[in-house]
TrEMBL record:
Full protein name: DUF5675 domain-containing protein
Domain DUF5675 intervals: 5-114
InterPro entries tied to this protein: DUF5675 (IPR043732)
Organism name: Lacibacter luteus
Top-level taxon of the source organism: Bacteria
Pfam family, one: DUF5675
Amino acid sequence: MELELIRTYFPDGTNGELLHNNKRVCSTIELPWLANKQMISCIPEGRYELTKRYSQRYKHHLHVNDVKGRSLILIHAFNDALKESKGCIAPVSICTGEGKGNNSMLALKKLLAVTSIEFDKGNKIFLIIKSVN
């Protein structure tokens, strides 16, 4: 299974649309692009394998694997990238500003519902990140 994240970059954050089979799953928010610097930048465009992950802090969420120069990049719920992210991706129901959105928990549940079907079948899931340009 492949998910496609189409990004738009802004000075104060990165907004995106997450698609599966060209259909919108949810919007996304991230930190601005700052040359892949740890803790302050979104990750580079590319193709990444996703795996499911659980932690006490974020409960059920996804791990973005093998990001060059980075570790523990997750897809988990948050609504303000500059205040709450250290390089991760948040699904949101709607973007409300640069790197800001709302109803992230609801959007994450929707994304996990889509991916869990494939994980349960033993299928791999890949995230392809590219820009709108």
